[in-house]
Design a protein that fits this description.
- By secondary structure, the chain is mostly helical.
- It has 2 domains: 184 residues, Up-down Bundle (Growth Hormone, Chain: A), CATH 1.20.1250; 198 residues, Growth Hormone, Chain: A (Up-down Bundle), CATH 1.20.1250.
- It is 79% helix and 0% strand.
- It has 14 helices and no strands.
- α2 packs antiparallel against α3 and α2 crosses α7.
- It is globular, with a radius of gyration of 21 Å.
């Protein structure tokens, strides 16, 4: 078969449905979650610690269940779990809108977390299943772009709705998941597993026993430790340089560049660089950007570093997802994507604690470069670890030329 016989990437109805639903999910999430602290702490006078506990437990619930959500998808198919997750997230956000006590807020936040745990890994498995191998990097790039667009538009929508009350914002956010439910219900086929007995806990066990994939997942913890710094150390530095209003431009640059550049950048990288080389290079770029923040003495310089940081992160997600799909047996896509969530859960949790701690220690020692130099070293070690972990990963199947 010649290279010309490979059809061009023209998204199908199922693929467009997944991209649209991803936008709705991220937009709905960011329309209400940033307002939880504003409403319950600023409006109702709750302690920041109590609201932080609720949000932390929600995140822990979602990340913990994501591991099992992928494994269940290998048994019953991705679509039922994605739809069930949308239903639970709808109920959770609608419940949060009416919560007036700590137990009620905690229960509804956990319900929303369970919903996320059900659809996260199955969504990646569904993207893989409905996309040809040679088009997966671009498809994951499109879904990432739609998520970033949701991250940009969600807070704007939430801020616009805030004068109408937190309840209105919560109900609008919940309705976004209802629309996503309808879109996926109409467009996503029910992909019945060919080997349903291979999934479940047995599928997770196989992913854990896969030495190559286990190495890949564990090394990626280092990257997710870096990626969470946009919400921790980078945000703290932005506020120190330009005040609380700096967070808007900070996230605008980060998410806006991803919306504008991710797809064309991925196409360029895809044509010229092998996937695993692109992943290692992107992690090095993220590490370099964080290291350079040690020398950023103005907000404009910091935004320049954030732009460099964003270029790296927008390459990592689709290449990491593509490599996960390449390493996973076809009958265990959900289990492998679920197992890979361990890196995000652990790296995100450790990064949130470590980033703030490094900033505090650096300030006490009058060595403000400490967090950035430390993160740079973590990035270098992670890049070297990825090169080692992926050293025997086969190339993607290529089409021979005549």
């Amino acid at each position: 078969m010649s290279a010309a016989s490979v059809p061009p990437f023209r998204p199908s109805g199922a693929q467009l449905g997944l991209v649209a639903a991803n936008f709705l999910m991220w937009g709905g999430f960011f329309a209400v979650i940033p307002l939880v602290t504003v409403h319950f702490v600023g409006g109702l006078g709750w302690t920041a610690a109590s609201v932080g506990l609720v949000l932390g437990l929600r995140q822990l619930t979602q990340q913990g269940l994501t591991v099992f959500g992928g494994a269940w998808a290998d048994r019953i198919g991705a679509k039922p779990l994605i739809l069930a997750g949308c239903v639970l997230r709808t109920l959770g956000f609608a419940g949060m809108a009416y919560s007036g006590t700590f137990p009620a807020l905690l229960a509804t936040a956990l319900l929303a977390g369970v919903g996320g745990g059900l659809f996260d890994a199955p969504k990646s498995a569904a993207i893989t299943a409905v996309t040809r191998p040679e088009h997966r990097t671009r498809m994951f790039s499109l879904t990432s772009m739609s998520g970033n667009l949701g991250m940009v538009s969600g807070p704007l929508l939430g801020a616009a709705l805030l004068p109408l009350g937190f309840r209105t914002a919560g109900l609008v956010a919940a309705s976004a998941y209802l629309v996503a439910l309808a879109v996926l219900g109409l467009t996503l086929p029910h992909l019945r597993p060919e080997h349903p007995r291979a999934g479940g806990l047995g599928g997770l066990a196989r992913a854990a026993r896969d030495l190559r994939f286990r190495r890949f997942t564990l090394v990626l913890i280092g990257y997710f430790l870096l990626s969470t710094q946009i919400n921790v150390a980078v945000t703290l530095k932005a506020i120190a340089l330009a005040g609380p209003g700096a967070t808007g431009p900070l996230y605008g640059v980060s998410a806006g560049l991803s919306v504008l550049l991710q797809y064309p950048l991925l196409r360029l990288v895809e044509r010229r660089v092998r996937t695993r080389v692109a992943l290692v290079g992107a992690v090095l770029l993220v590490a370099a950007a964080l290291g350079l923040m040690a020398f950023a003495t103005s907000f404009a310089a910091l935004l320049g570093c954030v732009a460099l940081y964003s270029l790296g992160t927008m390459i990592v997600y689709p290449t990491q997802q593509t490599l996960t799909a390449r390493l996973a047996p076809p009958e265990l896509l959900g289990s492998y994507f679920g197992f890979s969530a361990i890196s995000l859960g652990v790296g995100g949790a450790v990064g949130s604690v470590l980033g703030g701690a490094l900033v505090d220690v650096g300030a006490r020692l009058h060595f403000t470069a400490l967090p950035w130099l430390t993160l740079f070293v973590v990035g270098l070690v992670t890049a070297l670890g990825l090169r080692w972990a992926l050293r025997d990963v086969p190339r993607a199947q290529t089409v021979p030329r005549n």
